[in-house]
Structures are given as C-alpha cells and as structure tokens.
Amino acid sequence: MAETIRHDKTARQLRLLSDALDSGRLGPVKRLVNTLSPAEIGNLLESLPPGKRSVVWGLVDPEDDGEVLVHVGEDVRESLIADMDPDELVAAVEDLDIDDLADLVEDLPDTVIDEVLKSMDRENRERLEQVLSYDEDSAGRLMNPDVVTVRTDTTVDVVLRYLRLRGELPEHTDHLYVISRRHQYLGRIALQSLLTRDASTPINQLIDDEQPAIGVDVSADEVARMFSDHDWISAPVVDDNNVLLGRITIDDVVDIIRYQAEHQALGAAGLDEEEDMFSPVLRATRRRLIWLSINLGTAFLAASVVDQFAATIDQLVALAVLMPIVAGMGGNAGTQVLALMVRGLALGQVSASNVRTLLWKEARVALLNGLALGLVLALIVLVWFRSPGLSLVIAAALTLNLVSAATAGVLVPITLKRLGFDPALASSIFLTTVTDVMGFFTFLGLATLVLLR
Amino acid sequence: MAETIRHDKTARQLRLLSDALDSGRLGPVKRLVNTLSPAEIGNLLESLPPGKRSVVWGLVDPEDDGEVLVHVGEDVRESLIADMDPDELVAAVEDLDIDDLADLVEDLPDTVIDEVLKSMDRENRERLEQVLSYDEDSAGRLMNPDVVTVRTDTTVDVVLRYLRLRGELPEHTDHLYVISRRHQYLGRIALQSLLTRDASTPINQLIDDEQPAIGVDVSADEVARMFSDHDWISAPVVDDNNVLLGRITIDDVVDIIRYQAEHQALGAAGLDEEEDMFSPVLRATRRRLIWLSINLGTAFLAASVVDQFAATIDQLVALAVLMPIVAGMGGNAGTQVLALMVRGLALGQVSASNVRTLLWKEARVALLNGLALGLVLALIVLVWFRSPGLSLVIAAALTLNLVSAATAGVLVPITLKRLGFDPALASSIFLTTVTDVMGFFTFLGLATLVLLR
Question: Could B321 and A333 be called an inter-chain contact, meaning their C-beta atoms sit closer than 8 Å?
Fold first, then answer.
C-alpha cells in the first residue's frame, strides 16, 4: 500500500538526518539520505556547512548524483563538483535529460564536457547543441525535445496500436501533438480523449487547436505567466516556421516561479539567488562589500546634506536628535509604495497608462499619513522639547518627506524598468537616497528658516 | 491551425486594451477582453483604476464572471462584487468547481450564499460543507473531490470500456486512483500505461504505489514543497483512515507558490498581499498608518539614544553629520543577512543544528567588512574633519555595528519563527531597531569616551 504523508515531512527528515550526522553513525545517515528525492537531497546539502556537506555527498547513491547537481544553487554545485573526480562526474551527468544537461554544462570542467560529448550519440549531441544555442532565459532552454507526435489522417485505433508498440511515453505526457507533413504544429490530442472515445473515431475529430504554441524565443518569465494564467500542464514549442521543436512541462515552470521569487527577495538586498548560505567567509565578504560600498556612497551624500546645516545643529542640538526620525519614516513609507509598484511591474499591471493615476493616489495617501503622523510627532516633540516652532517644523518636514517618498516609490522603479534595469534589484538604494537626502534637507532647512531668524 | 505566441503577449494585450479604453470605443474593448482567459482578465482588472475597472467588468462575458472573481485579490474582488446585483452573482458562481466556490464563499453577501446553496443538489452542498470544514491553508481546502477511481480486481480492457462509457474525465486527470472496497487509497494507474499496455493486462500489474497520499490536514506550504521537490502533477488526498477524499493538481500549487512570493515581498513592507493597487485613498491610508506608527515608535527609541549624548554632539557637531552613516550601514548589512536567513527558513534549511555555524560565519564576514569599510570611512573622515580620533571612533563603531547587525540578522528571524511569528513579516522592524540603536550608541558612546576626555 502507498505511503501517506501526515505532517511536515521535510522539516522532520532534516532533523532526523542532522541528529544522525551529529552522532557520527554514517549507516543510518546513508539510509535516510537515500529515501529522499534528488531535490530533497539538494535542499539538505544546501543546509549543511562544508564539512558535513562533503560527508553526506559521499553517501548519496551515485545514480542520483546528476539530478542532485541539477537541483542545487550554482555556488553549492561548484562545491559538490570540486569533491568529485572526472570519471564520477561523467557517469553522473551522461544520463541526464538534454534540458538538465544544458543547465549544468557551464559549470563542468572542460575535460568532463569533452568526455560527456564523446559518450553521446550524434543525435543527442546535436540536440544538446541546439538547446544550448537558445538564450538562457527563453522557451528554447526550457523545452524538452522528447515529444510524441501523430498525423491527422488516422484513427484512434491506429494511434492506440502505435502507442502499445512504442511502450513508455516521456514523463508528464498528457497530450500527443498533431503535426503536418512538414512537421508543423497543428494542435494536440488529450490522452483522455483517446481513452474515452470510440476506437474508430478519426483523429481529426479529436484535435484541440485551442492550445497555442510558444515561440522558441519567448522569455521564460512570459512562459511562466502563460502557464499560470491558463492552468497549462504542458505546451508545445515551435520555431519561426511553426515547426514543432519540443514541449515545456509545468514542473520546469514551477522551478522558474520559485527562482523568480528568490531572485526578487535576495536581489533587493544586493545578493545573488545562487548564493550558498555557507559560502566561504572571504568570498561572502567580497560579494557583500560591493553592495555596502554603494550604500556607503549614498550615506555620504546624505551626510553632506546634514553638514550644510552644521551651524544650525550647533545652535539647536535637538535637531540632531530628531532628524533620523524624519529621514527614517520617509524610508519606511517609500518602501511600502515600492513593494506595491514592484509587484505591479512584475505582473505587467503598471504601465504608462496608469502611472499618473497611481502617483496621484499615492501622493494623497502620503499627504494624509503625513498630516496624521505629523500631528502625533508634533505633540510628542512639544512635550519633549517644549518648542512650538520645532513641533511645527518637524510635522511639516515629515509630511513633505512622505510625499517625496511616495513620488520616488512610484517613479524610481518605473524609470529603472524603462532604462532596462530590474526594478526589484536597484530600486531600494535610490529610494532611500531620496528619502534620506529629502528628510534631512526639509527638516534642517525648515528649522534654519523658521527657528534661527 | 493553432495560434502561436511569439512575443510577450500579456504586456502587449494590456497596452492595446488600455489604448482602446482611452479612445472610449467600447466595441473593440469588449472584443479584446473576451479573447483573454479569466486569469488574464483578472490581471487586467487589477491594473485599472476604479472607474475604468467598472466599465471593463461590465463588458466581460457573464460566463467568465465566476472564474474572474476567483483570480483576483480580495480587495479587487470586493469592488467587483459591489458592482453586481445578487442575480448576476448567483449566476456567476453557481457553476464553479467546489474548491473555487469554497475560496469565494466568504466574500459573498449572505443572501447570495443562500441562493447558491439552494441551487445546488444535496451531494454538492455536502461536498462544499466538507471542504469548508478544513483549515484554510490545508490540503483539504486545495483538493477537488472529483476523482476517477478503479478497483484492483479488473483488467485494462474493462477499465477502458468503463472510461468510454463515462465520457469526459475531470480536468488535468493524469492518473486513475485504485481504491479498496472500503474506499481506501492503494495506489494509482497512469493514463499512459492504460494506453501502452495490452488490453488483457490485469490492473494490479499496473498499480504504481510510489505516489504517496497527502493527509487532509497537511499545510498548503508543505504541499507546495512536495509538489516542487518531486515534480508531481497531481496527488491524492486521504483522511485519517486513508480513505480517498480527492486530489490536488499542480495548477493550484502554482497559485500557492505565487501567493507565497507576494506574501513575503509585500509582508516585509507591512502590506497585505490582497492589497488593491488602486484601493480607495482613505482605506490605504488607514492600513499603512498601523505599520508607520510602529516604525515611529522604534524611531523614537533610536532618537532617545541620541538624546543621551546631546551634550557630546553640542561639543562636536561633526558627530551629528556622521552618525546616520554608522546606523544606516548597519541596517544595510543586516538586511543582507536577514534575506539569506528568511530564504533558509522558508526552505527548511535553517534549524537549531546549524544556527551556531551560521552565526559564526556571518560574524566573521561582518568583522572583515567592518574592517575594510571602516578603513575607507576613517580615511574619508580624516580628510574631511582632520581629526585622527574621530576617524578611529567611526571605524570602530562601524565594525561593532556590522557585527551586531549580523547577529541580529541571524537571531531575529529564527527567534520570531520559534515564537510562532512569520519571520518574513516582522524581522526588518526589529533588525533596524537594533542597528539604529546600536549604531548611535556605539558611535556617540565611543566619541564621548575617546574625544571628550
């Protein structure tokens, strides 16, 4: 009888494994590891520090090695490949599907690539070269060339006999593709309809031509959007002449969607989604330094604004105490607008046609929030510093900064996108530069004008 | 012949529609809208401000109304439902699948729910009640009770005849489920194997018992993880006695994964993933005020630290100029650590067994970055303010703050998770509180000790 999953299996298995590893008894570790799927093994390896990672990697069934390499991030993959000798590597990758092999090939040593190519027959070698010729983030790289095709001029009976003769179908086959004599895609036949229709039914009565084909150059992001908007399980891929090249299945699309989410979450902090949690200290330091150096530059920009008002602060030290509040609140409010905009841009919901409406809405929200929070802030400052002028200045500065923050929150990501940059990655640096500079400038500037006459 | 998609269709169609809308000619708008899938129409409606949204909603084919409502966020759904009269609503939702109807039911007016329940037959009404009895984020709410089952004691031939008699199968059926007399799940049969095996083959030779069943109470997050780790297309759901209740298909899992990503991205900015980009100004203001008020509280905490050192700043105004740099850089460095931790926690890769190793690694990375950036910062400050003491103080304060930031970046999310909170949502507020307070305290504290003797 089949197994039943009752609780959160992943977390429990990782805990069991980690206990077994700590106890140093490798027998139970090996048994546990080899009950996992390659993706789960990959997840486990990513959660282990380098020493333990090597030990567990040595215990994985060699048959799974290739699939595990496909399922880990590039950094971790590199560390695993470094642990293998060339023969092991060749054995691990030579039986992979063409699309998986294409993903790995750039991370393999040249000698291993040569060996793998030599071990392939000519047809597969040509297929691999073809897949590698497409852009990395395109439908061409996602597709698997292994498809089952039929012609229009036949019957269910003949197709059933052909399938019995052929034996096993490629994984996740839910449709057969109908092609013309010149191998052009015409439509598809659901396996379901072969099963539920009479054997004498002509195939051309069963063709579903509602399923569009995807051009081989369409971007992976668009492929993911189409699959999720239409609940597709698989879709055919064609070249410029509508010739059928392969098919994309939903399991690869799920990987793209997960990857996009990680790319956004880590990218916003200036990190690469391939980053290994346990990457060597020197490498991690070097990578983060770049991002932090850019931020140091923008911090100096803000500091130089404060420096312009050094004389004012010298006269009224309360300004130094309160100025981070105005700048920081702008950053928080702007981040909210930014989050909505980045989602809207990713979903294709924000464009030139609605930016003005969005800007107007966000400006009004910021104005109202500025007035409400400004009132609270003014009252607290009045009690604290007993200066009505200072209260007035901070409330006005906060309101102005929230409106600038909203404006930057709308305009920064859309401008970056128009300039060809990924708005999810660079927007926050620009936004906080605006909110810091404007926060310090409005607060200290207004204070200079109003309080030091 | 089937259509071919060559370019990024979504964006282009939205642009065309928006142009047609602006021109005010509703005929072309209607034609364009009704070439879209319900999910695409939902996406379009979300991208329109309230006025245009009402116009386009009125043009959607009433047959698609129900599916469109399923595909939009709760805020937008509410605005669409407000535009419909009860009869339209009943007609829109009464033909939905049980799982979709269960999603909608809470947003419908009571009179409409009564009407819909009345229009259903008893079996469907009981099914709906059953689905609604499961937790909102559980396998039970994701499953569709519509499954095709067979018994073990039969042959391919008999099953094929049964399927022909039955006619159409439920959407995305790739397997039939094999059950016992007491309706317990035993395994599954691929449609593929029915097609490729001989008609006389006994069914029990074709059973695949490798596919585990999912317990009805397993969390939606775990369901998503299992589907993506194992490349499943569908999986059976069973109750505590292993009785088959329904099946979950990958298209619903794709929706969960997208939802999780939005939840994380918007949640980190204190927003709800159901937020309408064009929600009314007053409502948006009210919602954001909560988040901003919490941030105002933490900003006052940081300001009160600065206030302790007012006398020091009074003597050396350069401290006010430089203090935001130390605090801000801590925030940036901590955010990087936080992003890695939140991903690790979401993937189940971070647990008690490796926190210490992670903390030690991040502390060393922070120390090295602190020394490197501290050196740069010290040199700039030396040239700017010509004070070796100040240079030394800011470099030391930066290093200390980066190490605190790394510590907070590791410990804050894991502590929140252990306390039962979602680390993706609240971590950043706690983190920036630590980095602001520590940044101001170490810099101004060291300056008081070293420079004002």
Answer: no
Instruction: Give the side-chain half-sphere CA count within 13 A for B195.
Output: 29
B440: pLDDT strictly greater than 90: yes
Judgement on whether residues A396 and A365 belong to the same structural domain of the protein: yes
Q: Is A342 on the interface with B (CB under 8 A)?
A: yes
CB contact under 8 A, B191 and A186: no
Question: Rounded to whole angstroms, what are the CA distances from B263 to A55, A265, B39?
Answer: 36, 11, 19
pLDDT in tens, B378-410: 999 999 999 999 999 999 999 999 999 999 999
Beta-carbon separation of B18 and A313 below 8 A:
no
A:294-313 residues touching chain B, CB 8 A cutoff: 295-296, 299-300, 302-303, 306-307, 310, 313
Print the domain residue range for A173: 149-251
Provide the mean pLDDT of chain B: 90
Asked if residue B176 belongs to a domain, the reply is: yes
The answer, yes or no, to whether residue A288 has pLDDT greater than 90, is yes
What is the C-alpha separation between B54 and B244, in angstroms, rounded?
43
* Partners of A202 in the β-ladder: A155
Would the CB atoms of A313 and B313 count as touching at under 8 Å?
Answer: yes
Q: Is B7 a residue whose pLDDT tops 70?
A: no
Please give the structure tokens belonging to residue B317: 């105004």
Give the separation between CA B449 and CA B444, rounded to whole angstroms. Answer: 9
The answer to whether A375 contacts chain B (CB < 8 Å) is no
Q: Rounded to the nearest 10 degrees, how much is the dihedral formed by the CA atoms of B160, B164, B167, B171?
A: 30
**Count of positions (residues) in chain A:** 453
Task: Report pLDDT digits (tens) over B245-261.
Answer: 999 999 889 989 988 88
For residue A290, tell me if it sits in a domain: yes
pLDDT digits over B46-56, tens only?
988 888 899 99
Q: Are residues B327 and B445 in the same domain?
A: yes
Domain shared by B287 and B414, yes or no: yes
Q: In b/e form, how buried is each residue of B126-149, taking b as 16+ CB within 10 angstroms? A: ebbebbeebeeebbbbbbbbebbe
Task: State whether B317 and B442 are in the same domain.
Answer: yes
With beta carbons under 8 A apart, name residues in chain A contacting B172.
Answer: 174, 231, 233
Residue A25 confidence (pLDDT): 82
ipTM of the complex: 0.89
Pairwise CA distance, residues A160 & A151, whole Å = 13
pLDDT tens digits along A114-134? 888 888 888 888 888 888 899
Bridge partner residues of B176 (DSSP): B189
Domain-located, residue B257: no
Within a domain: residue A263?
A: no
Asked whether residue A326 falls in the same domain as residue A393, the answer is yes
B106 vs A77, B112, B136, CA distance in Å?
46, 11, 11
